[in-house]
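Researcher: Batch entry, complex prediction.
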Amino acid sequence: MRQAEELCEDQGAALTPLRRDVYELLLRHDRPVGAYELLDELKSLRPKAAPVTVYRALDFLLDLGLVHRVNALNAFSACRGHETDHRGLVLICRSCKATVELEDRKVDNTIRRSAAELGFETGDGPVEVLGTCAGCRG
Amino acid sequence: MRQAEELCEDQGAALTPLRRDVYELLLRHDRPVGAYELLDELKSLRPKAAPVTVYRALDFLLDLGLVHRVNALNAFSACRGHETDHRGLVLICRSCKATVELEDRKVDNTIRRSAAELGFETGDGPVEVLGTCAGCRG
DNA sequence: CACTAAATGTAATGTTATTACATAATATAT
DNA sequence: ATATATTATGTAATAACATTACATTTAGTG
Ligand SMILES: [Zn+2]
Ligand SMILES: [Zn+2]
Ligand SMILES: [Zn+2]
Ligand SMILES: [Zn+2]
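Model: Structure tokens for the complex:
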């Protein structure tokens, strides 16, 4: 949270109470959370909240890199343990939906180089990798 | 198409006229196509088609590995130029939504090894990488 | 032919995300 | 301080994507 405040300060971005609430809700989870699930939780704090309320706050947080969108799950997770503008991996278990985020320069470099050969410039944010976690095997 | 027929033959899977229609529609595009866009096209061939018609055919094709789902775009594309059960990359331009699929053993190995260190076993299907294509830069 | 399993038809509904416009709060300039 | 512009939030409706449930048809099997 402190880091988020500093980041917003630096960037001249307004971390309003509403945006802070959404961010804090995400921080409470150790897994990606759907926007409507988040909305349910937010409503207990802010009865007026509507879908667009959540999506707007998420957009703000996504732009800052404080939050990631996990396309494979249509869900959002607070970024942890990395610098903003990082390019790592997020491993997603097909079975239990658990995710792990990790930084990996080697993977990042390999991908970036392959993409560059085709004139393609990779963006930021982690790459999603689907598979099966240790727990969900035998 | 010929390859698809052989694959179905081998697997004892029924490539019905409907499923073939959906697959052929996908083959006509060189980009991922949304299910409802596909539905519109399918309707000109089969007026009775409904959303579930398309999704069922897509599930069939996905299981065989003939088609990929692109999570970043909520869309589907026919797999080209690779073996089934391959693990490559699909580069997706954030700006124009164009995609390129490529095989890359190095990237695949690097990812798989990193994931394995955490007891995570990567699945099949290409990894999605977002970025900017050559055309969309300057 | 009778039976079964697989595929498709049909309708409704669930889930995720966006658009449009009104109101309120905040910053900037005079 | 007041007027103005900008940014943020409220409110309602709708769009876009996907699934469920059950009826009917078609294709395979004995
Ligand atoms: Zn992160
Ligand atoms: Zn798992
Ligand atoms: Zn492929
Ligand atoms: Zn492009």
